[in-house]
């Protein structure tokens, strides 16, 4: 049994076929990268997994449970957390409040009129721990909207982790970042993957990051699966070189 | 995290000192007690709207419906059913809450201007009912022939029907309870999910929150306190007419929030004070008072885009 199994999914927008018959199996604890040239359907593929878009055909299964008809928010509650290509945070709140909200949601308090006194210390410790892991402690009091791109992304990843997910989906975590920021985010993802044995699926353009982090790589091109394998196999694959790496790698 | 911060309490202390001492200085600055009562009533209405507008990020342009339902609820109860202020207020608030609870699920899927338009449409339905149903509501002439009744607590009777100062403190006590409940809710984990929706709806959904349900809950809380303030408004005037339900009244509440500052807890109260006092002063000086209020509004929005209290925005900590 695979942890996340995607069977032959397709998404058509009218006559445009964005994703066409993609299958993928991700094992528990695996870090899987999904790569492909622009317009390959990677983000659409992600949106099919998280339920933001409805499938035209195919199935998505999490631990053998078919997710058809399950809304995005419910999938999150089942343990599927995600980040977005364009960082989605709470810009007018401080970093600490950004982290505090998902911590309280994970504690089941999203409808609570107050935090039970007995749980205050535990929640505070959890917030502190997440900020420490994400390297956010030094900027805890800053408004999230004022931060650098890299810090905002770290904040978003820690918000997703605050939910104690079983599966973390990262849509281009280093998009638009400089080298230093890219390194920092890649280090953060590797640490999360290693320390918590978290299952991660990520879309990424930066090949150094992909070959550095991924256990296995799935290559999409024009909405179709092109290849799948370890980083070494993908590098050696001639079809991938021709279609995607342009022979340059 | 440093526990009790005295500086954060300064606005609360100033607001409560001014409100509690109002009857002592109101006449000296050229006002009168009923004007102060009106500020508190409209302040509660604007703060109720702001629970939804400023803290959940959802613009309703039809809140006058619930204000008016509260007002007609208390007036009609006293006139037709029982001469009891307490029961009338319960009925008025209850009717407003019930209407909001039923209408809510039909509109919470909408966003932005679509939500605002549909709230206007629902509010206009209530307006036309009050306007047309002459023999029950009094139609355009309003609901008359009733007055607020003294409140009997068993061991003592509160004579709110005569002395304006007694009635002022009665209104202020209700205001205090309502505002305290809203403040506690906003500082709760539930309140933070509402602020999260305002900040970024998509992020909030992908933290596992059922966003539409939370907007419905915020809408219901907001409309319930709106109806409560409507009951006080009717009791203040011993009268209610369909204009309390009209869409321009909804607009006035939005103006109060924007004027005072939607991101600040007391902002709408300040906005209501400015609006009510200006209206009182200008309408006795000129029949064109609305244009002057409009002018003040334009100037305020130009110079205080976050409202009058928006200048006290919290600093980011380096």
From TrEMBL, chain A:
User: Pfam families from the xrefs?
Assistant: ABC_tran, BCA_ABC_TP_C
Tell me the keywords, alphabetical order.
ATP-binding, Nucleotide-binding, Transport
Q: Which residues form the ABC transporter domain?
A: 4-247
Q: Does the keyword Transcription regulation apply?
A: no
Any one GO cellular component localisation term in the record: plasma membrane
**Keyword Nucleotide-binding among UniProt keywords:** yes
Gene Ontology molecular functions: ATP binding; ATP hydrolysis activity
Q: Can you name this protein? A: ABC transporter ATP-binding protein
Q: Which organism is it from?
A: Allgaiera indica
**Species lineage:** Bacteria, Pseudomonadati, Pseudomonadota, Alphaproteobacteria, Rhodobacterales
TrEMBL record, chain B:
Give the record's keywords alphabetically: Cell membrane, Membrane, Transmembrane, Transmembrane helix
Q: Which InterPro entries match?
A: ABC_transp_permease, LivM-like
Q: Known Pfam families for this protein? A: BPD_transp_2 (PF02653)
The membrane topology term of the UniProt record is: Multi-pass membrane protein
Question: Localized where?
Answer: Cell membrane
Q: Where are the transmembrane segments?
A: 12-29, 88-108, 113-133, 167-186, 207-233, 253-278, 290-312
Q: Which domain of life is it from?
A: Bacteria
Q: Which GO terms describe its cellular component?
A: plasma membrane
Any one GO molecular-function label of the UniProt entry: branched-chain amino acid transmembrane transporter activity
Q: What is its main location?
A: membrane
- Which PANTHER family would you find in this protein's record? ABC TRANSPORTER ATP-BINDING PROTEIN (PTHR30482:SF17), HIGH-AFFINITY BRANCHED-CHAIN AMINO ACID TRANSPORT SYSTEM PERMEASE (PTHR30482)
Under what name is this protein listed? Amino acid/amide ABC transporter membrane protein 2, HAAT family
The scientific name of the source species is Allgaiera indica
Output the lineage of the source organism.
Bacteria, Pseudomonadati, Pseudomonadota, Alphaproteobacteria, Rhodobacterales
């Amino acid at each position: 049994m695979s942890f996340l199994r995607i069977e032959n999914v397709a998404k058509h927008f009218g006559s445009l076929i964005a994703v066409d018959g993609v299958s993928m199996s991700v094992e528990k604890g695996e870090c899987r990268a999904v790569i492909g040239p622009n317009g390959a359907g990677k983000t659409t593929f992600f949106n099919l997994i998280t339920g933001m878009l409805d499938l035209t055909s195919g199935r998505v299964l999490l631990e053998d449970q078919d997710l058809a008809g399950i809304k995005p928010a419910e999938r999150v509650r089942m343990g599927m957390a995600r980040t977005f290509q364009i960082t989605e945070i709470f810009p007018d709140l401080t970093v600490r409040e950004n982290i505090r909200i998902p911590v309280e949601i994970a504690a089941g308090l999203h409808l609570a009129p107050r935090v039970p006194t007995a749980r205050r210390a535990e929640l505070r410790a959890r917030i502190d721990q997440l900020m420490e892991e994400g390297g956010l402690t030094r900027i805890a009091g800053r408004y999230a909207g004022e931060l650098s791109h890299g810090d905002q992304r770290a904040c978003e990843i820690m918000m997703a982790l605050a939910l104690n997910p079983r599966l973390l989906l990262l849509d281009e975590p280093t998009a638009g970042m400089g080298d230093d920021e890219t390194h920092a985010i890649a280090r953060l993802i590797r640490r999360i993957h290693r320390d918590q044995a978290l299952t991660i699926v990520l879309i990424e353009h930066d090949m150094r990051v992909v070959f550095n982090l991924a256990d296995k790589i799935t290559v999409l091109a024009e909405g179709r699966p092109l290849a799948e394998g370890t980083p070494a196999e993908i590098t050696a694959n001639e079809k991938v070189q021709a279609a995607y790496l342009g022979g340059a790698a | 995290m440093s526990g009790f911060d005295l500086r954060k309490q300064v606005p609360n202390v100033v607001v409560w000192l001014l409100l509690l001492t109002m009857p002592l200085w109101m006449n000296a600055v050229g006002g009168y007690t009923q004007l102060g009562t009106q500020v508190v009533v409209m302040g509660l209405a604007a703060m109720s709207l702001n629970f939804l507008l400023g803290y959940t990020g959802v613009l309703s342009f039809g809140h006058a419906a619930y204000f008016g339902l509260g007002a007609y609820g208390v007036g009609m109860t006293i006139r037709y059913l029982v001469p009891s202020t307490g029961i009338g207020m319960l009925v008025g608030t209850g009717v407003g809450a019930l209407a909001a609870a039923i209408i809510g699920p039909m509109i919470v899927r909408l966003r932005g201007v679509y939500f605002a338009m549909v709230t206007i449409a629902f509010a206009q339905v209530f307006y036309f009912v009050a306007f047309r149903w002459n023999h029950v509501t009094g139609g355009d002439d309003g609901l008359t022939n009733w007055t607020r009744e003294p409140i009997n607590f068993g061991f003592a009777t509160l004579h709110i029907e005569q002395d304006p100062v007694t009635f002022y403190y009665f209104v202020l006590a209700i205001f205090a309870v309502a505002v305290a409940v809203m403040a506690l809710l906003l500082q709760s984990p539930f309140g933070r999910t509402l602020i999260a929706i305002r900040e970024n709806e998509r992020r909030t959904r992908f933290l596992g929150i059922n966003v539409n349900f939370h907007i419905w809950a915020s809408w219901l809380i907001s409309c319930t306190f709106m109806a409560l303030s409507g009951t006080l408004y009717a009791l203040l005037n011993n009268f209610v007419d369909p204009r309390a339900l009209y869409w321009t009244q909804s607009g006035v509440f939005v103006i109060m929030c924007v004027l005072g500052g939607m991101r600040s807890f007391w902002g709408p109260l300040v906005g209501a004070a400015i609006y009510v006092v200006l209206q009182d002063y200008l309408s006795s000086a000129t029949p064109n008072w609305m244009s002057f209020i409009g002018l003040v509004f334009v100037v305020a929005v130009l110079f205080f885009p976050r409202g009058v209290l928006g200048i006290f925005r919290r600093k980011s900590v380096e």
